[in-house]
Amino acid sequence: MTEPAGYITVEERTRLIRQIGRFLAAAKRFWVFCHENPDGDTLGCSLAAYAGLTAAGKSVRVFTPNTAPRMYQFLPHAEQLTLVERFPTEMPQVVLVLDNAAFDRLGPVYCAQLTALGLGPLTQHKASGTVLINIDHHLGNTMYGDYNLVDPSCCACGELLYYAFKELDLPLTLDVAINLYATILTDTGKFSYANTNFNTFAIAGELIQLGVDPYDVVNRVYNRRTPQQIELLARILGTIESHADAGYFTCYVTQAMLKGTDCDLSDTEGAVDIMKTVGGYDCCFLLKEEADGKVKVSARAINDFDVRSFAKRFGGGGHPAASGFRIEASITDAPQVLSAALLQHRAALASESH
User: Fold this and answer.
1) Do 47 and 63 belong to one domain?
2) Which of 163, 192, 220 is the last residue of a domain?
3) CB neighbour class for 239 (10 Å; exposed up to 12, middle 13-18, buried from 19)
């Protein structure tokens, strides 16, 4: 049977895992990267990789372009997450990027440094002795690595990493299992998104058998908000603006709202998923004002609307039910830009259907 465009067979996935496994076995020094504004999948994968590689005697550094949200700071080895302005001088043999669909999602600071070091799709002089390995599950991954293991059939990048651990006989310790469970839990929306299937529960069940306490993980991720985070959430939900005729609604958060509640943008994690519970719309958008004045948008599908295809209009991406992108406009002007783009997108979809 022919796989859909962008998908790979189980046999091809196994071949790629074994190919990458040869580099993992031979290398001694690793840099592992989360994507910007890290979520549970990229963090859980990076920390699982750290646990597995260090258990195998490797030297591993884990870098994140932004501070991890508080809800994920309980994960085993979270203290290893490093936010730096300048990378170490000693190059690794392997740079491992996890759950990252495009090179620029590492953020401008990290992208510029890696490019200067001879890594990534924009470099003019390829680094000698270092390979960039891209492991991801996003459809539309730009294949920016020297080696690319991308399987969109996986519910989370953590599922793909689980297959790699099994195929390469890496130890699935409790620390690894907790991190992988967190990736699956969060990227399936607590096992509620359309990407949840038989394999999702089978893997989750095995991780629980290895000692993961599912109640403890879900409680720490979703049920431990601070009073300040609750106040911020109330302010965000208070900004709701309905566009029922166009099938969507928006909320927003400004830098002033963050300062007024003693929070940062990472504390908005999960807010858009609460928005998603509102019925009667096709999709919803959370507009987040960043420190530089630009706007990051988190999009969620409520019905069958494909937010990933819409996010591509802004150079963004993700999943059909959950995606993100940036708008090059102020928080004041962004809603109008969003509205105009959505009208164009719906018109294009109507034209295609004819």
Assistant:
1) yes
2) 220
3) middle
Q: Contact at 8 Å (CB) between 307 and 276?
A: no
Comparing C-alpha atoms, which of 128, 129, 141 is closest to residue 35?
A: 141
Query: Which token pair is 261?
Result: 């509640």
Residue found by looking up tokens 């819409």 in the block: 310
**Domain check: are 250 and 184 in the same one?**
no
Tens digit of pLDDT at every position of the chain (354 positions): 556 777 999 999 999 999 999 999 999 999 999 999 999 999 999 999 999 999 999 999 999 999 999 999 999 999 999 999 999 999 999 999 999 999 999 999 999 999 999 999 999 999 999 999 999 999 989 999 999 999 999 999 999 999 999 999 999 999 999 999 999 999 998 998 889 999 999 999 999 999 999 999 999 999 989 999 999 999 999 999 999 999 999 999 999 999 999 999 989 988 998 999 999 999 999 999 999 999 999 999 998 899 999 999 999 888 888 899 999 999 999 999 999 999 999 999 888 876
Smallest CA-to-CA distance from 207 within 161, 163, 176 is with: 176
Q: Tell me the residue range of the domain where 15 lies.
A: 10-220
Residues 65, 120: Cα–Cα separation, whole Å: 16
- State the DSSP H helix or E strand holding residue 122, giving kind and residue range, or none if neither: none
Instruction: With both helix axes pointing from N to C terminus, report the angle between 157-167 and 174-187 in degrees, rounded to the nearest 10.
Output: 150
Do the domain assignments include residue 167?
A: yes
Find where tokens 């669909």 sit.
Answer: 101
Whether residues 113 and 34 fall in one domain: yes
Q: Which two tokens stand for residue 256?
A: 């002033």
| 339 in the same domain as 205 | no
User: Is 327 within 8 Å of 314 (Cβ atoms)?
Assistant: yes
